[in-house]
Amino acid sequence: MRLPSKFSASALVLVCALAIAFSATDNSRAFAHGGDDDDYAAGEPGNSMKPSRTVEVTMSEANGTMSYEPAEIDVKKGEQIKFIVKNVGTLKHEFFLDSFDHNARHKIEMQKNPEMEHDDPNAQSIEPGQQKEILWKFSKLGSFEFACLIPGHYEAGMHGKVVVK
Ligand SMILES: [Cu+2]
Q1: Do 14 and 78 fall into the same domain?
Q2: Can you tell me whether residue 89 is helix, strand or coil?
């Protein structure tokens, strides 16, 4: 007889905790938007004092497509990656590393504000002929996305994924 009521009480606590967690997350993102997000879904900013593996990623356009090379990168959980992202194309591009969900939401914001510039630990805007570094620690398991959220670029093929195992 005690078990069901205990169960529902703890279920209720769990629901409340989730509701609070979600509203806190929403608030922090809403607050941070327009500036930088401190809510990183793909892991955490890297520490330059710690070892890292370098991965070069090039961005380009050709034959009506836009792409990253490589478009899929495998890492181990806890691994720190130094992305050297080179724009070898003729248009400005971005490297935006986040969850698929966050990128999808940010893409909608960029449709309203296409001139948005990014200079964050997980996101850089890169002019043609330039390169930037992103040092990132993949502290969470799962699949994450790097994408260019300049209107039209994602649809033209400019996205890739990082699989953390
Ligand atoms: Cu682009």
Answers
A1: no
A2: coil
Q: What is the pTM of this model?
A: 0.76
- Is there a single domain that holds both residue 98 and residue 145? yes
CA angle at 159 for the pair 128 and 108, rounded to the nearest 5°? 95
Residue 61 counted as domain residue = yes
Domain region containing 89: 44-164
pLDDT, one tens digit for every residue, the chain (165 residues): 454 444 444 444 444 344 444 444 443 343 344 444 447 999 999 999 999 999 999 999 988 899 999 999 999 999 999 999 999 999 999 999 999 999 999 999 999 999 899 999 999 999 999 999 999 999 999 999 999 999 999 999 999 999 999
Measured in Å, residue 12 CA sits from the centre of ligand 1 at: 45
Cα(134) to ligand 1 centroid in Å equals 17
Distance 39 CA to ligand 1 centre (A): 23
The upper half-sphere exposure of residue 113, i.e. CA atoms within 13 Å in the direction of its Cβ, equals: 8
Number of domains in the chain: 2
Q: How far is the CA of 63 from the centre of ligand 1 (A)?
A: 14
